[in-house]
Amino acid sequence: MQTSFTPAQLADPHVAESEKILRRCVHCGFCTATCPTYVTLGNELDSPRGRIYLIKDMLENGRPADEEVVTHIDRCLSCLACVTTCPSGVDYMHLVDHARIHIENTYRRPLADRLIRNLLAAVLPYPARFRTALGFARLGRPFAALLKRVSALKPLGAMLDLAPKSAARFSDAAKPGIRPAGAQKRGRVAILSGCAQPVLDPGINEATLRLLARLGVEVVVPEGEGCCGALVHHMGREEQALDFARRNVDVWTREIEKGGLDAIIITASGCGTTIKDYGHMLRLDPAYAEKAARVSGLAKDITEYLVGLDLPKLEPRRLNVAYHSACSMQHGQKITMAPKNLLKAAGFTVRDPAEGHLCCGSAGTYNILQPEISAQLKARKVKNIEATRPDVIATGNIGCITQIASGTAIPILHTVELLDWAYGGPKPEKLAAK
Amino acid sequence: MLTPHSESDAAYVIRNAAAQGTKLAICGGNTRSGFGNITSAEETLSSRGLAGIVDYERAEMVMTAKAGTPVAEIEAALDENRQMMAFEPMDHRGIMGTHGASFGEPTIGGVFAANASGPRRLVAGAARDSLLGIRFINGQGQAIRAGGRVMKNVTGLDLTKLLAGSHGTLGFLTEVTFRVLPVPQTVETVVVSGLDDAAAAKAMAAAMALPVEVSGAAHLPASVKGRFLNGALPAKADGAEATVLRLEGLAASVAVRAEKLAAVMEAFGPVSRLGSEESRTLWREIRDVHPYADGTQKPLWRVSVAPSVGHQLVAALRLEAGVDAFYDWQGGLVWMRMEADPEAELLRRYIRALGGGHATLMRAFDAVRAGTPAFEPLPDAVAALSARVKQKLDPAGIFSPAKMG
Amino acid sequence: MSEAIRFLPPRQTVLSRRAAIVADLADLLPPECLVHEERELVPFETDAFISYRRLPLAVALPRTTAQVAAVMKYCHRCGIPVVPRGAGTSLSGGAIPQEDAIVLGLSKMSRILEVDYANRTATVQAGVTNLSISETVGIDGFFYAPDPSSQLACTIGGNIGMNSGGAHCLKYGVTTNNLLGVKMVLVDGTVIELGGKHLDAAGYDLLGLVCGSEGQLGIVTEATVRLIAKPEGARPVLFGFETSEEAGACVADIIGSGIIPVAIEFMDKPAIEICEAFAQAGYPLDVGALLIVEVEGSDAEMDAMLASIVEIARRHGVKTVRECQSATEAALIWKGRKSAFGATGRIADYICMDGTVPLGKLPYVLNKTSEIVERFGLRVANVFHAGDGNMHPLILFNANDPADAAKAEEAGNEILKLCVDAGGCLTGEHGVGIEKRDLMRHQYSDADLAQQMAVRSAFDEGWILNPSKVFPLEGRE
């Protein structure tokens, strides 16, 4: 569509990029149909097309962000269903990233909102802090209902609700070092330990390490790696996000140069989407652009990597698995068939819940910052999943696991945990009763 | 009777009538004169002087004809090219007793003015769905063109639909352009015997839900069955009622679909089949409401309701009045002949109670007609709106006043 | 933004009362159902016809028929124009507001109210998307037939407003042929029902009149539509031709032979390339024109029909014939076709024409269209419903270049006049909207238009419903 930016505005590479993205949009409205917030709220302003328009208007006029624009951008889950739907190839992801940075730079949020965002940004990306915070959360849980009655404090209440009921155990999975191939070596990869996942569910990477070892893949857990930066990136805190990215790029570049890497394995698709975008995020940093692009090129979701290993086909087992495709998996990384094909080959019966394209409402910190919309999406998602009468739910992202688990009694596992079990690993604890 | 021979003559006549406030009854061959309330027109204006096929694009399956062209002439031209009007326009002469010297031939204009549709209406649409464009003279004597000659056309307000089924109360049709379709190579009828009305409704709904493209679904209870095909419908041993389901298309395809349909229908009752020739006759008889083309003036209703409730309506009425009935359109079109009183209020109350629809009195003794609204009375807001619409097309109120209420 | 098409001058009496009107609306609607902050109004300033834009006075997003009625009653009393909006996917600007208008959006009314298989009907709120009906009843073997390319997003209310068509209308008809009833709010807030689960409404065919009336006769809030049993199977087949003329002639011959496939879609070379880049559907890239012909029924039926079609295509020098082998493949073929307009956005801005012509005139009109567009120094991609002659030339241009945009509009106008002159019409399924309003006199005489306008006035004497659309501003009553 038509845009009106001055040459001076276009001198800013971020604006120039956004202008290019906006030019592609033909305002056809297809994106509204698959947008979880539009489907829930029925308001153009809470649709991708509406947000694109709000962003366009804000950027063209060089205006600081205001309360109205912030409200609607904040409601965006960044699920990127719109990107999958868009026939014109509008790169909504980078447009909304730009808008979020613009908001962070030009808009002063109300005090409570600021404090909560600061708290999240200061705690979640750091496993030690997060672990400690979860301890407090268990103490605070009785107050959750109380907090939710005060609108500014609702996010705190939501946070307490989401915190696991019991402390996660400590695990060696994130300990730096090399895990040798258990069979004849056929590859060497690095694995992302990440930030929140090892605290919430260390079993995922344990299963990954076991499975890869049995398959003859040497795995490096590099020293100094950390949060991928997605959490703060989605809050528009660009510098902090880029710092995380640079640190990880450094760590993996060292590994690449030292022993070579076939892939950088990621077991949380939310992180995968961001790491695959490092090349873009750091494109304007001459010292990092090239290295970051190389890292992004090597980043692979665990299922993406596993399909390349030609796992043997196993006898069918009587277990119905509802596969929930995380948004970051299907829309962010366009990985749709690999996880299901792996599960099928491993003998599971895979069910596709209706409205599979819709987000479960987790979306990073969304379930904390937008608890009401998140709760509606969760209910809708759980209803669709339960309609397939599954024995277990499989998905590829820790955020979805936490979110969906808080809404159903059906056990939910990471895809790789089921694969590890099928290919000789221990039976996941959550399936003890099955 | 005024029979102008050109559109401009017609316009002239109407302009004069409007100026003098002369009320005109509009007709073609007047064979559908049983429709509507008795009108107070002073003159009759017929389109029979405007006759002839204007254009027939066989490859594009579109025909344009002057409104007074006899249906028989149109059908002959179509037949020659193995084409047809898919909506199967009914011939009203049988039930209305409008044969004979004092009446003309049914005209194509009359077909569309009455929105006359037959059994295939269920799947292929009504006359109005095939009507692409019209020319008509409005109540001020202006020649108006609406629609066009292409199938897809959403340019402006769809006056074509509005005029279809308006029984000459909104304008005087002078020319119609409509879509035609190839005649199916083969027709076959699957007959299920011995079903009562309720069971037949279930069987027909089941048939329509199958991917076999049933193009006609009628239920002929015991009282009427014998009147079809000279009594040649499957024998009494199989039961006194016949539920008939029509399949059409390429011979090979019809054979396969008939097998599938018969297999499912066997769960409902004994199944037999009719071949192409018998089928064509049977469905024409259903179309023309053969059992009630009985030469009587017994009140005859044409009722349209949701298919699943047609038989409930008849059952309810039977408790209070003498009713003979059969069903087309999967049970949603009920033809009802009343023994004595038309029971209009009772019937219409039941229709409302069963979720809505409409009842049209097609025929009755004059005394009865005078006291019974022939068309379903409309809710106040819709009636007021309809009156405003009529006023915009016929400001002087000269076209068949009171005919449609 | 283009300026060639005028809007009605805003009613100053309305503009000057803006604050009071917003306050009054706030009494009629819950807060989340009313948009009035100027910044938030911007995204409602246009639909999918983005050449024209106007900021509305406010946007009402009611949840119930009662709320719609309350808003209408108020606007009627105060003489405030109302522009109805479904999903805002109109390609003719049907939902573009004006400065003194309330946009009445039905997007919050998106529930399927009842599915009745015995009577094969679905009753839905107007904001339900077209596709969601078929998705809901699909598992039980039914579908809702009209399938506009925007069916993923467009609403039933909008479909009724425009009498939308789609690829599969060749066999099943357009919206008006599949609509059984509506609940609608008249301009003064009165709620009426037309039709229902039965066939052929009583009295005048007001339902037929409302369908395609572009939101000028009232606000439809609920609709009852016809469901159809899904065919046993369906198979799209790709036919590649050297030239558009050959493909066009082949279409006319297929229909002329008495075979009526479910759909015959046409794409020329630019359109094939655009769609293939998006959908990777396997369209042949070495041909000048492509037909997607879909047949349905049992395998035997489809084989028989296809054999005849292939024979006809061979007579027209078909270059490649590819039968689709699986449901996934079929889905991709249709995804590519249905995304054609949007996918065009990858290479240029475009406006999409919608004229219909008699089938025999297809090759001639295609040729002439190219000539016209070339004369203006622009490019064109053709992708359309060939089976019913409903053309969609996409005129490509650069929206950031005002001269280019003006040329595109002029070329478009010439093409539409060409369609009318060839015996067709201005719009087959997108509606007149604002886009084709000023061309109406090319198709209709003054008396024809005056009659339409008079009937329109019977519903809305004060012309407050979508007033800038459909009828030329000059010569209104």
Concise synopsis of the structure shown:
Chain A has 434 residues and is an alpha/beta fold. Chain A has 26 helices and nine strands. In chain B, 32% of the residues lie in helices and 23% in strands.
Could you walk me through the main structural features you see in this protein, from its secondary elements to its overall organization?
The complex is a heterotrimer of chains A (434), B (405) and C (477). Chain A has 434 residues and is an alpha/beta fold. Helices cover 53% and strands 8% of the residues of chain A. Chain A is built from 26 helices and 9 strands. Chain B has 3 domains: 7-182, Uridine Diphospho-n-acetylenolpyruvylglucosamine Reductase, domain 3; 186-287, Alpha-Beta Plaits; 290-374, Alpha-Beta Plaits. In chain B, the strands form 5 sheets. In chain B, strands 3-4-8-6-7 form a 5-stranded antiparallel β-sheet. The longest helix of chain B has 15 residues, at 251-265. In chain B, 60% of the residues are buried. In chain C, a hairpin with a 5-residue loop joins strand 8 (179-185) and strand 9 (191-195). Chains in contact: A-C, B-C. The A-C interface holds A 1-4, 23-34, 38-39, 41-45, 49-50, 53-54, 57, 66, 68-69, 72, 85-90 and C 1, 32, 35, 37, 39-40, 42-44, 46-48, 50, 61, 87-89, 105, 107-110, 127, 129, 131, 150, 152-154, 278, 339-346, 349-350, 399-400, 405. Chain C: Its cofactor is FAD. Chain C: Residues 52-230 form the FAD-binding PCMH-type domain. Chain C: Keywords: FAD, Flavoprotein, Oxidoreductase.
N- to C-terminal distance of chain A: 54 Å
CATH topology of the largest domain in chain C: Uridine Diphospho-n-acetylenolpyruvylglucosamine Reductase, domain 3
Q: State the shape of chain A.
A: globular
What is the spatial order of strands in the main beta sheet of chain C? 15-12-14-13-17-18-16
Largest interface: B-C, 84 and 91 residues
The spatial strand order of the largest sheet of chain A comes to: 1-3-2-4-5
Q: Which architecture of the largest domain in chain A would the CATH scheme give at its second level?
A: 3-Layer(aba) Sandwich
Number of folding domains of chain C?
A: 4
| Cα end-to-end separation of chain C | 30 Å
Mean pLDDT of chain A: 94
What count of structural domains of chain A?
4
Largest sheet of chain A: 5 strands, mixed
CATH class of the largest domain in chain A: Alpha Beta
* Number of separate strands of chain A: 9
* DSSP helix fraction of chain C: 25-40%
The protein's oligomeric status is heterotrimer
- Structural class of chain A, by secondary structure, is alpha/beta
DSSP helix count of chain A?
A: 26
